[in-house]
Specification:
membrane, 7 helices, transmembrane helix, mainly alpha, transmembrane, about 0% strand, about 190 residues
């Protein structure tokens, strides 16, 4: 019963944080014309924030150690930031273009890799390396396709992809450390 109560508390907590964060643009819309969200914007961001919060809460609760929790945190935050930035302004150019749509593949790799690894540290490490490889492939495709001529420079494309690849690499390194610690504990 205590575990079920804790789960409901987490859901309510994440819902409250989501509503609070959505209040920021809602209030800002009343004071400036710079913020102009539609109902769909609120729905999409609400789902993204709530989904990220629930995922984070669930993954951290089942975490065996501190390094794993930090790795999960970095992975979840990096994925959230990538999706949010892509929806808000676009990672290559602006708006819905093929360059920005390519980043759906990164989110799919993170989700599928995590599920296939059953959230075990060694598997999560491999999933993060595949995520980094996906970002490298997307940057290469963007540059070979000449997307740097449509709103983003070469430096911006490399910078954005490098930033997110760096976050996922740090996450992979921490998962490696967590897997190594788990292996050492079982061999004692």
């Amino acid at each position: 019963m205590k575990k079920q109560s804790s789960i409901y508390s987490s859901i309510i907590g994440v819902a409250c944080v989501t509503l609070f964060l959505l209040l920021i643009p809602f209030v800002a819309m009343h004071f400036t014309n710079e913020v102009n969200w539609s109902s769909l914007d609120f729905i999409i961001m609400g789902a993204l924030i709530f989904g990220t919060g629930i995922s984070f809460t669930w993954l951290v609760r089942r975490s065996p150690n501190l390094m794993y929790r930090i790795a999960i945190s970095i992975m979840v935050v990096a994925t959230f930031l990538m999706i949010w930035a892509n929806l808000a302004v676009g990672l290559i150019g602006s708006g819905p273009n093929i360059g920005n749509l390519m980043y759906i593949a990164v989110a799919i790799v993170v989700i599928v890799g995590s599920l296939l690894s059953q959230f075990k540290a060694a598997g999560m490490e491999r999933a993060m390396y595949v995520t980094v490889l996906t970002l490298v492939v997307l940057a290469t495709i963007a540059l070979l396709a000449g997307m740097q001529h449509h709103g983003s420079s070469v430096i911006e494309i490399l910078g954005v992809n490098g930033f997110f690849a760096g976050l996922f690499l740090v996450s992979a390194a921490l998962f490696h450390y967590a897997a190594k610690n788990a292996l050492n504990r079982t061999s004692l």
